Amino acid sequence: MKKILFLAGALAIYACGANKDTAKDSNVDQAAKYASTITAKELGTHLFTYASDEFEGRNTGEPGQKKAVEYLKNFYVSQGIPSPISSDDYFQEVPADFLNKRKRQVPLKDSENVVAFIKGSEKPDEIIVISAHLDHEGIKDGEIYNGADDDGSGTVALLEIAQAFQMAVKAGKGPKRSILFLHVTGEEKGLLGSQYYTDNPIFPLANTVCNLNIDMVGRIDDRHKADPNYVYLIGSDKLSTELHTLSEEINNKYTKINLDYKYNDENDPNRFYYRSDHYNFAKHNIPIIFYFNGTHADYHRPTDTPDKINYELLENRARLVFHTAWEVANKETRIIADKAVKK
């Protein structure tokens, strides 16, 4: 009888402890918990490989770009993040005839977008697309254009964001809506990989909630030398008031980055809104945010190398994208596009 009472008491104590642990976990800010797994160290480890000479500048369709897509695929496999296509196929093929619709002096070869997918727990048919372009300029006049900032920085940020979401999934805290991690090819050739995706979407565009596009987020431009904790946001308010407001609130709560809207101006002579992959989503009335650090002396130069990246800034900017995606994925209602498409 004493043994039975002792066992009952022990179980009660264990249950009480378990309840406390559960209560404690419920009080943890889950977004902050998983965002903290995005680290400067891991970003650097990825980028010193991804923007190395081994990848030969990742020119669309060339051997270095093929090595790059294998690197991305192998990462997703290692993390247990599945493909939305089939069990072992992470490549959305982008055929040469599509890439060469515009006449080129040197025709492009077949290429591929890389896709990975986390299915939402409650609203799986609603898709958030987080994108970065995987290609760069390749080799010119015998020099390798490594493209560490453009867009190695966005590419490795996307890997870390995916890993953070997958850690949440494994802990039973996965997103309510689905997340598509989309690495597009042919951006440097005219936004071709993202155009191919939106022409041939894996998931209906009508089900695509928003696109968060990361293109160059590892450097500091001349405008911000004195205050480097910034990022340019482009397009956040052009299609969805709600997405813009959410973005600002999330930044104020978590990352406290100076959000610079200089290039969001309709009269911006650089026309950056039309010059990265988000635009192919915006054309279809899908709300977007484009994250960008501006140009610098090494933009489209062979000197854009991984040793020049500010990894602490890259970490915080990647966390901002993660937090924004987390909020969009988990809010009760889908964000609304309340503004007309501007061509």
**CATH level-two architecture of the largest domain:** 3-Layer(aba) Sandwich
N-end to C-end Cα span:
80 Å
Strand content of the residues, in percent? 15-25%
CATH level-3 fold name of the largest domain = Aminopeptidase
Mean model confidence by pLDDT:
93
Rg from Cα: 21 Å
CATH class of the largest domain: Alpha Beta
For the largest beta-sheet, the strand count, sense and barrel status come to: 8 strands, mixed
* Helix/strand class: alpha/beta
Low-confidence stretches: 1-14, 20-24
Shape: globular
Helix-strand pattern: HHHHEHEEEEHEHEEHEHEH
Helix coverage percent: 25-40%
Total domain count: 2
Order of strands across the widest beta sheet? 1-2-6-3-7-10-8-9
Describe the structure.
With 343 residues, this protein is of the alpha/beta class. The chain folds into 2 domains: 1-31; 36-330, Aminopeptidase (3-Layer(aba) Sandwich), CATH 3.40.630.10. 39% of the residues lie in helices and 17% in strands. It has 10 helices and 10 strands. The strands form 2 sheets. The chain has an 8-stranded mixed beta sheet with strand order 1-2-6-3-7-10-8-9, with helices on both faces. A two-stranded antiparallel ribbon has the order 4-5. Helix 8 (241-255) links the parallel strand 8 and strand 9. Helix 3 crosses helix 6 (148-170) and helix 4 packs parallel to helix 6 (148-170). The longest helix is centred in the first third of the chain and has 26 residues, at 2-27. The chain is globular and about 55 Å long. The model is unreliable at 1-14 and 20-24 (pLDDT under 50).
